[in-house]
C-alpha cells in the first residue's frame, strides 16, 4: 500500500489589486470571499438579484469625475466611477461620488438596513470597510475625502462613515488578511451557527452547517477569542459527539430549474430572445426560457445553432449529447472548472492508494446497503438468505484490503442483488410479465427490455453526476474507485455507485410497475433491445419524477430532492478531498 501523499497548499498568484467589494465580502465572511474572488464562484438568489437591480441605474451610466485640482468650489455628482490605488493594491467601482467645496464623498447603495447603534443607525462592519476603502482610493488619486456615505434602501436612511486614522489602519489590516487567505490556497472554515448563512446566495455551495457537522466542529465555550471576526466564528474547534440532527435546513427542498429533453429526427434548436426554440423542419414545436432550464439534452442528430450554444454557455447551462439509443457521449458547456485548488487536491489524492481505498470502501458499502434496502422494500417475497449475504458483503467491503478485492465484493453483491431483481417487477397484468423477463444484468448491447431500461437509466444518472462534478469544481475523469479510462467519467461513476439502486433502479421499477413503459415501447434488432422514441420519453418522465422526489437526508435530517442530494454529496466529497471533513458520509436510505 502506498504512503499517503501530504496535501500542502501552494501559494496562489494574486491579481495586483483587490476590489473594494471583495474586501467587504472578506469582512462579512472569509469563506464567501474565497469562493467569489479566488474560486470565481457566484450564484444569484432573491436578495442578490434585488441588490443587482438597485445598482442597475448607476451601472447604466458612467460620468467623468474632474481632476482633483479642478474641483475647488464646484458641485459635482459622478456615477459609476472606477479608480485604483497602486500603493494600496485596491480598485473600487463607486456607485456615486459627490463633490462639494473641494472635497469628495463616495456613496454606496446597500439593499438592506443599517445596524441599530446606541446613537442611531450605524454602518455594518463590512460596509464600513468597503466605503473606507473607496475613500482611501480617492485620496490616493489626489482628492480630499473625509468621509463616505452609505444609503440603505430598506429604511431609506443615510449613514455617514468618518475615515479616521483607526479606520484607515483597519482597512490595511483587513486587506493584508484577505491577501494572505487568498494566497494560501486553503479555503477558510465555514461560519458556525451564523445568522448570515441562511440568506447567503452561496449557502447551497458552501454547506456551512453540513460541513461543520460532518467534521465534528463547534465553537468551544472557553476559547471565544479564536472565533472573533466581526461577530462570527471563523476558526471552529473540534469536539466529539456533535448532534447532526441540529443542522439547520439551509438547502432548498426543490430546484426550480428543469432539464430540457429533445429527442427525435429532423429537429433543430435555436435562440430567440431569452428563449430556446425547438423546430421540426421550420415549425416551432417547443419553447423554453433560458432562466428556467438546468440542462439541455440532445438525443440523436439534433442540430443546435451557435447562438443557442453561446446562450447556454453564458447562462452556465450544460448541453448533454446522447445517441438515439441513450448512450451518453459528452457535454458542451461554458468555462466551468474554475476551482483549481480542488482539482489539484483531487489529482494528488487520486495517487494516494490509502485515500482511494478508504473512499472506495465507503462507496461500495453504501451501494450494497442501498441494494439490500431496495430489495427489502420492493421484492414480493425477499429472500432472507440473500438479504443476510448482502449485509455480509457490505461489511466485507468496509474491510477490503485492496481495490481488486473490493471489485470482487461488489461483483458478488451485484449477482445477489440482480438475482432477486425480477421479484421487484410487479405488473398488474400478469399476461405482460413475459415481456419483462429478467434473469441477469447484461449490456453492450442490452438483450432484454429491463436491461435496456437499466442501461438508459445509468446513462442519465452518469450525465447528471458528470454535470455535478463540473459544477463543484472536480475533474469528472479522475476517480478514486473507477480507474482512469479514455472517455469515461470515472469520478461521476464513483459518486454514482450508491445512487444506482436509489435513483436509476427505482425509476426503472416505477416505469415498469405503473405501466409508464410497456412491452410495445421496445425495438429488437437481433439480440439487441432498445427503446422507441415514445418509450424513451416515457422513461425520462419516470426518471425525472424520481429526481424530483423529496427524501430525508440520513445524516443531516432535512428533506431535499434527489436532484439536490447529488450536489450535496459531491460537495461533501469535495470537503473530504480538501481535508475539511475526516470522512465522506455516504447517502443511505433506511
Describe the structure concisely.
With 590 residues, this protein is an alpha/beta fold. Helix content is 40%, strand content 19%. It is built from 17 helices and 22 strands.
CATH 2nd-level architecture of the largest domain: Up-down Bundle
The helix-and-strand class reads alpha/beta
The share of residues in extended strands comes to 15-25%
Overall residue-averaged pLDDT value: 80
| Residues in helix, % | 40-55%
- The outline comes out as elongated
The domain count comes to: 4
Largest sheet: number of strands, sense, barrel closure: 6 strands, mixed
Report the radius of gyration as a whole number of Å: 28 Å
The CATH C-level class name of the largest domain: Mainly Alpha
CATH topology tier name of the largest domain: Four Helix Bundle (Hemerythrin (Met), subunit A)
Distance between the termini: 34 Å
CATH superfamily of the largest domain: CRISPR-associated endonuclease Cas1, C-terminal domain
Provide an overview of this structure.
- The chain has 590 residues and is an alpha/beta fold.
- The chain has four domains: 18-184, Alpha-Beta Complex (Lambda Exonuclease, Chain A); 197-246, no CATH class; 258-332, Ribosomal Protein L15, Chain: K, domain 2; 340-577, CRISPR-associated endonuclease Cas1, C-terminal domain (Four Helix Bundle (Hemerythrin (Met), subunit A)).
- It is built from 17 helices and 22 strands.
- The protein has helices at 20-28, 30-38, 46-59, 125-140, 165-184, 203-206, 208-215, 306-314, 340-350, 353-378, 384-399, 403-419, 449-472, 490-496, 499-513, 533-548, 562-577, and strands at 18-19, 76-85, 90-100, 103-110, 115-117, 120-122, 147-152, 157-162, 217-218, 237-238, 258-263, 267-272, 275-280, 283-289, 293-299, 303-304, 319-322, 328-332, 522-525, 528-531, 550-552, 559-561.
- The strands form seven sheets. Strands 1, 2, 3, 4, 7 and 8 form a six-stranded mixed sheet that branches.
- Strand 7 (147-152) and strand 8 (157-162) form a beta hairpin.
- Helix 4 (125-140) crosses helix 5 (165-184) and helix 10 (353-378) runs parallel beside helix 15.
- It is elongated and about 90 Å long.
- The model is unreliable at 45-59, 217-246 and 430-434 (pLDDT under 50).
Amino acid at each position: 500500500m502506498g504512503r499517503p501523499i501530504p496535501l500542502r497548499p501552494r501559494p496562489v498568484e494574486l491579481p495586483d489589486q483587490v476590489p473594494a467589494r471583495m474586501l467587504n465580502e472578506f469582512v462579512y465572511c472569509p469563506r464567501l470571499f474565497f469562493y467569489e474572488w479566488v474560486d470565481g464562484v457566484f450564484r444569484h438568489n432573491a436578495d442578490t438579484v434585488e441588490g443587482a437591480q438597485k445598482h442597475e441605474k448607476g451601472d447604466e451610466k458612467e460620468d467623468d469625475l474632474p481632476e482633483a485640482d479642478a474641483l475647488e468650489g464646484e458641485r459635482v455628482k459622478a456615477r459609476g466611477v472606477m479608480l485604483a490605488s497602486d500603493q494600496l493594491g485596491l480598485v473600487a467601482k463607486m456607485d456615486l461620488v459627490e463633490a462639494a467645496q473641494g472635497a469628495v464623498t463616495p456613496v454606496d447603495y446597500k439593499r438592506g438596513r443599517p445596524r441599530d447603534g446606541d446613537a442611531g443607525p450605524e454602518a455594518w462592519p463590512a460596509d464600513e470597510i468597503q466605503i473606507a476603502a473607496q475613500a482611501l482610493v480617492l485620496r490616493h488619486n489626489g482628492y480630499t475625502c473625509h468621509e463616505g456615505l452609505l444609503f440603505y434602501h430598506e429604511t431609506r436612511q443615510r449613514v455617514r462613515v468618518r475615515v479616521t486614522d483607526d479606520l484607515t489602519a483597519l482597512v490595511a489590516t483587513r486587506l493584508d488578511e484577505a491577501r494572505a487567505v487568498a494566497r494560501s490556497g486553503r479555503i477558510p472554515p465555514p461560519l458556525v451557527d451564523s445568522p448570515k448563512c441562511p440568506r447567503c446566495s452561496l449557502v447551497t455551495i458552501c454547506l456551512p452547517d453540513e460541513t461543520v457537522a460532518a467534521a465534528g466542529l463547534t465553537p468551544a465555550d472557553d476559547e471565544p477569542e479564536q472565533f472573533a471576526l466581526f461577530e462570527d466564528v471563523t476558526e471552529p474547534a473540534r469536539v466529539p459527539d456533535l448532534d447532526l440532527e441540529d443542522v439547520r435546513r439551509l438547502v432548498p427542498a426543490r430546484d426550480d430549474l428543469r432539464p430540457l429533453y429533445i429527442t427525435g429526427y429532423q429537429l433543430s434548436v435555436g435562440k430567440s430572445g431569452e428563449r430556446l426554440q425547438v423546430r421540426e423542419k421550420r415549425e416551432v414545436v417547443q419553447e423554453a426560457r433560458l432562466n428556467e432550464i438546468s440542462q439541455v439534452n440532445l438525443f440523436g442528430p439534433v442540430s443546435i445553432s451557435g447562438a443557442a450554444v453561446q446562450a447556454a454557455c453564458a447562462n452556465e447551462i450544460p448541453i448533454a449529447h446522447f445517441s438515439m439509443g441513450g448512450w451518453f457521449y459528452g457535454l458542451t458547456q461554458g468555462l466551468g472548472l474554475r476551482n483549481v485548488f480542488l482539482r489539484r487536491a483531487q489529482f494528488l489524492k487520486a495517487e494516494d492508494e490509502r485515500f482511494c481505498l478508504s473512499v472506495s470502501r465507503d462507496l461500495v458499502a453504501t451501494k450494497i446497503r442501498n441494494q439490500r434496502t431496495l430489495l427489502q422494500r420492493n421484492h414480493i417475497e425477499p429472500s432472507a438468505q440473500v438479504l443476510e449475504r448482502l449485509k455480509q458483503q457490505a461489511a466485507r467491503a468496509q474491510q477490503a484490503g485492496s481495490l481488486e478485492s473490493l471489485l470482487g465484493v461488489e461483483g458478488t453483491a451485484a449477482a445477489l442483488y440482480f438475482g432477486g431483481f425480477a421479484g421487484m417487477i410487479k405488473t398488474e397484468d400478469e399476461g405482460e410479465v413475459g415481456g419483462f423477463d429478467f434473469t441477469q444484468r447484461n449490456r453492450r448491447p442490452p438483450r432484454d427490455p429491463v436491461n435496456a431500461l437499466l442501461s438508459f437509466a445509468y446513462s442519465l444518472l452518469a450525465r447528471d453526476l458528470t454535470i455535478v462534478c463540473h459544477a463543484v469544481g472536480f475533474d469528472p475523469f479522475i476517480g478514486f474507485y473507477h480507474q482512469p479510462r479514455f472517455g469515461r467519467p470515472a469520478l461521476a461513476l464513483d459518486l454514482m455507485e450508491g445512487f444506482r439502486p436509489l435513483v436509476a433502479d427505482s425509476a426503472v421499477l416505477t416505469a415498469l410497475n405503473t405501466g409508464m413503459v410497456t412491452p410495445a415501447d421496445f425495438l429488437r434488432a437481433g439480440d439487441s433491445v432498445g427503446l422507441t422514441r415514445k418509450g424513451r420519453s416515457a422513461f425520462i418522465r419516470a426518471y425525472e419524477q424520481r429526481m424530483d422526489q423529496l427524501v430525508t437526508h440520513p445524516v443531516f435530517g432535512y428533506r431535499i430532492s434527489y436532484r439536490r442530494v447529488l450536489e450535496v454529496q459531491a460537495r461533501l466529497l469535495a470537503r473530504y478531498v480538501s481535508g475539511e471533513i475526516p470522512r465522506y458520509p455516504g447517502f443511505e436510505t433506511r
